[in-house]
Amino acid sequence: MRLSEILEKCEYTCKSEINDAEISDVIYDSRKVVPGCVFVCLVGASSDGHAYAADAVLKGAAAIIAEREMDLPDGCVPIIVENSRQALSYISAAFFRYPADELTTIALTGTKGKTTISFMIKDILEKAGKKAGIIGTMGVFTDKRHIETHNTTPESYEIQKYLREMADEGCKYAVMEVSSQALMVGRTAGIVFDFGLFSNISPDHIGENEHKDYGEYLRCKKILFSQCRQGLFNIDDKHAEYMMEDATCSIHTYGFRPEAGLRAAEVHYLRDGGFIGIKMRTEGTVADEFLVGMPGKFTAYNAMAAIGITFLCGIDTLPMKEALHDVLVTGRMENVRISDKFTLLIDYAHNAMSMESILTTMRDYNPKRMVSLFGCGGNRSKLRRFEMGEISGRLADLSILTADNSRFEDVNDIIADILTGMHKTNGEYVVIPDRKEAIKYSIQNAREGDIILLLGKGHEDYQEIKGERYPFDERVVIKDILEEIGWQ
């Protein structure tokens, strides 16, 4: 592909005539520069790609995309853009021949529920005979493989690369979790999504390394609805009206409120032996009954979101019913069946909103005790720790405080912050910093009728400590514990 083709949707200036070279790749990491590539200088929190531009030219880069003029070797003149990260999005889309145009694209944004909803949508589409891929928190799922990623929404080059792979493998749909940070820096710029979903929002990702304040967080989430054709909004969320204001997409709604276009008329909570889930009757755009194999009121919201999106895609209710009955999302209200006497669930809940939602909704299943096992991530907002400690102390019968991804902090310091919130309540708690030992304690001390919630790790199969990732898959850990204690 020629340089002129790659730049066709970018606004740029250049002090010399552009050499319309054949481009081998698009690179934004100077360590990966190859001859004939375009090197894009990205300005990050800790490094500036402009510092590596000269080295990229010496390694054979055919062109440099930058935000400012600079002297470069071999007479190379940079191509100047206003925002190099946004330019990377447009350049990458062109380089991979605009794969989003060959797919029905579905973008999900919200504080919680995105991953569950994305897999519900994928399962429904596949029950209807449609191939679908996912880009999100649990990685990338094309038709043929699973790729682990480190961000909910990868960099724009990777997004376009994965969309191309999906299209080439015969996928007709792509479901993407779009984070507020990705919207803020323009990783999805240049994609006009067919459908956008707003699930909910609460203060999260606010801090030194994330959003500076809640207002910025809200504004970034809202960007999605200026780059999609149809929007589906959870009308029960207090920020729904704000999200719908000035939206350029057509508007559809779901929720429990009477004015919702798709509404839950009845929800019943089912817990029978090994099964735990809900039975839901809907009215409005889709009027039917659904048995959903995940527990809690929030499951009703997630299921409505998936029903609403797939209805807009033209899918019938039978595939919806089949998929939702059998739904299993790793680390999302995942039922680990080790006993008929108590329930053990793994969930990714790692913020105050998620924790409060789960602890509140699981009360509807009338547990003997609600046991909440959790920690908090290191090098993240301390407010989150205070809030989660207070919520667990107030809503759980027993809190087991332990490690999560402590990163570069001491786990005991993190637990001390959690206890600041916990001590505002009269909640019973124990502190067991070793997460495996904490899980063992929860199993060995379980009582008949208990619901035990292992919160925070979810789908993750590691613990991050001092810059290293150590294997830690809670499903495997539980299996090992049961073997160690001779569980029958």
TrEMBL record:
Residues 331-458 form the Mur ligase C-terminal domain. Pathway: Cell wall biogenesis; peptidoglycan biosynthesis. The modification N6-carboxylysine is found at K221. Residues 109-309 form the Mur ligase central domain. Its cofactor is Mg(2+). One of its GO terms (molecular function) is acid-amino acid ligase activity. The keyword Ligase applies. Signal peptide: none annotated. The keyword Kinase does not apply. GO terms for biological process: cell division; cell wall organization; peptidoglycan biosynthetic process; regulation of cell shape. GO terms for cellular component: cytoplasm. UDP-N-acetyl-alpha-D-muramoyl-L-alanyl-D-glutamate binds at S30, N151, T152, T153, S179, R187. Carboxylation is probably crucial for Mg(2+) binding and, consequently, for the gamma-phosphate positioning of ATP. Its main location: cytoplasm. Its EC number is 6.3.2.-. ATP binds at G110, T111, K112, G113, K114, T115, T116. Pfam families: Mur_ligase, Mur_ligase_C, Mur_ligase_M. SUPFAM superfamilies: MurD-like peptide ligases, catalytic domain (SSF53623), MurD-like peptide ligases, peptide-binding domain (SSF53244), MurE/MurF N-terminal domain (SSF63418). Gene3D superfamilies: Mur ligase, C-terminal domain (3.90.190.20), Mur-like, catalytic domain (3.40.1190.10), MurE/MurF, N-terminal domain (3.40.1390.10). It is found in: Cytoplasm. Catalyzes the addition of an amino acid to the nucleotide precursor UDP-N-acetylmuramoyl-L-alanyl-D-glutamate (UMAG) in the biosynthesis of bacterial cell-wall peptidoglycan. HAMAP family: MurE (MF_00208). Belongs to the MurCDEF family. MurE subfamily. This is UDP-N-acetylmuramyl-tripeptide synthetase. The gene is murE.
